[in-house]
Amino acid sequence: MLMTARILVFAGSIRTGAFSGRTADVAVKELVLQGAEVTRISLGDYSLPIMDEDLEAEKGVPENAVKLGRQIAAHDGFLIASPEYNSSIPPLLKNAIDWVSRVRKDGGRPFKPYAGKVAALCSSSDGNFAGIRGLYHLRSVLMNCQVEIITPQCSVAHASEAFDENGDFREERLRHAMENVARTLIERARMVSTRIDA
């Protein structure tokens, strides 16, 4: 019997009604439909100062970075739905990723939240490029953190028109793309799982 994949899902924006948040919600539905155990979080619940090594030297890694790291470590994989800011990663998301990468210990024990993790990337934008330019940078950053990124991704263009009244994608093309992302993430996460159960 296959183990149930545990997948963490969050958006790179916490703006009310953000397209990335709506894309993350679609991902949750699809992952659950395919049998995953899903946790949906908001980066707004893990408020962090701007990454600053002087601050880290003085006060250590913020507790919210450790808490977010624990969430990542407790899952087999994660999915990020991100907007694009000036053709790159939104600062909220980049800051969170950077702080979690600084986590080395938890309760005095060695702890690397990203170790052995698999991630899927989605994007959204009201423009023609669907936020895809930001995913190139996001992929590079996460790979530098030793996260394995699956190849399929789902990018939502003209996002203000992309969702129906139930919050689902209107276009069959997008539905198929998200199905493929979810299936690939679940399959790969099961293969390489190193999750740390709380």
UniProtKB/TrEMBL annotation:
A single GO CC term for this protein reads:
cytosol
By its UniProt entry, which Gene3D superfamilies does this protein fall under?
Answer: 3.40.50.360
Question: Could you tell me one molecular function GO term of this UniProt entry?
Answer: oxidoreductase activity
Domain NADPH-dependent FMN reductase-like: where? 6-159
Q: Which residues form a coiled coil?
A: none
Q: Which domain of life is it from?
A: Bacteria
Q: Which InterPro entries match?
A: Flavoprotein-like_sf, FMN_Rdtase-like_dom, NAD(P)H-dep_reductase
Give any Pfam family that matches.
FMN_red
Q: What is this protein called?
A: NAD(P)H-dependent oxidoreductase
